[in-house]
Amino acid sequence: MINIALPKGRLGEKVYALLAQAGYPCPELLEDNRKLTFENPEAGVRYFWVKPSDVAVYVERGATDLGIAGKDILLEYRPDVYELLDLQMGRCRMCVAGPADFVDDHAQTLRVATKFPNIAATYYSERSREIELIHLNGSIELAPILGLSDVIVDIVETGKTLKENGLSVHAEIVPISARLIANKAAFKFKSSEIRALTARAAEAVAERSK
Questions:
Q1: By CB distance 3.0 to 4.6 Å, which of 14, 56, 100, 180 could disulfide with 79?
Q2: Are strands 110-114 and 131-135 parallel, antiparallel or unpaired?
Q3: Strands (E), the chain
Q4: CA angle 6-34-7, nearest 5°?
Q5: What is the pairing mode between strands 37-40 and 45-50?
Q6: What letter does residue 92 receive in the DSSP assignment?
């Protein structure tokens, strides 16, 4: 059995549909219930609903063999896992945003508000830019509006929220999408099964992109 952590919510439902298309269905998962574990012995798969931000933890520690995590989570927390496949779902961008008329004065320390301090620190370190990190957990757009920060580093999907709050994108750091990840030990001991699933999932991704 291959144990797979699915992120709760719409993304997880889309990923499950992809994996079912690839030959790993579990009809029980679609039933109206509050269960968190589902299995299909015939397909050799067992699914678990997991909070999206916790998927990488379950995979890294071997509680599950595989999981689906956003590239943002992988870059921010750097779990010791294998990244097997870009599922091309949940696409968005990690960006630097701020007031439309903001001009970066390099003579001053740049104040950066973000939920992703490691991503922000790495981005600015690579540019030798001195910054003050302000770690927030929500409503990041308020930070520059209230003068708490000069800019923010956050995920941007459509840009609508930024626009409605008088902000705009100043730089794109990295594109973000859902990735299939594997526990390193599981990949060694269940190599043939995991490679087969990855190959079939890749075929399903390619088929959907046509």
A1: 56
A2: parallel
A3: 2-7, 37-40, 45-50, 66-70, 82-86, 92-99, 110-114, 131-135, 151-156, 167-176, 178-182
A4: 15
A5: antiparallel
A6: E
CB 5 within 8 A of CB 58: yes
Q: How many CA atoms lie within 13 A of 162 on its CB side?
A: 20
Give 31's pLDDT tier (boundaries 50, 70, 90). confident
Show Cβ contacts of residue 127 under 8 Å, excluding neighbours closer than 6 positions.
Answer: none
| pTM assigned to the model | 0.92
For residue range 79-129, list pLDDT tens digits in order. 999 999 999 999 999 999 999 999 999 999 999 999 999 999 999 999 999
Distance CA 177, CA 36 (A): 24
Residues counted in the chain: 210
Quote the radius of gyration of the chain (alpha carbons, Å): 20
Q: What three-state secondary structure class fits 152? A: strand
Give me the torsion for CA of 100, 73, 201, 6, rounded to 10°.
Answer: -120
Taking the CA of residue 114 as centre, how many other CA atoms within 13 Å lie in the half-sphere pointing to its CB?
29
- Quote the crossing angle between the two packed helices 10-21 and 191-208, to the nearest 10°: 100
